[in-house]
Amino acid sequence: MSDSIAAFGQLIRMLEREIDYQIKYGRCCDISQAQCHTLLELGIFKSASVSELTDVLKLDKSTLSRTIEGLVQLDLVTRETDPKDRRFVRVALTQQGKKSYETISTQCMQIYRRVFDFIPEDKKAQVLESLSLLVKAMENANVGDHPKNRITSCCT
Prior knowledge:
Elements (H helix, E strand, L loop, with lengths): L1 H25 L6 H13 L1 E3 H8 L3 H13 L3 E5 L7 E5 L1 H23 L6 H18 L15
Antiparallel strand pairs: 1-3, 2-3
């Protein structure tokens, strides 16, 4: 069992490094990783509240607020009070933000396609199922809503 856990841990660390490398050198158009992920989610949502984005991106509200502020300064997103409930702030892509989203999304798909092409045809469904199981397991392993209760990197 411990050999399996050690192998699992090593593979997860390798995957983390590969993903970090792809993000750093592959797709984010001179913006931060958090800004990149925020743009990608807003491209899907079209408009989202800050609360919705904190849940999806798994960022605390203050980090997300700084991330959004940077995107506002770059004229990539707009931030407006929700007309239905003034307690909420809604965020949406600007025209320039939509262009950045399209660029980043296209680059991501090219990377995913290249990686997926290296997986043998008869193993692709298995990889998709395994990744789905891995994501669910990682979500379930995070205990509670407070960030200090979540599993953090073993390197911090």
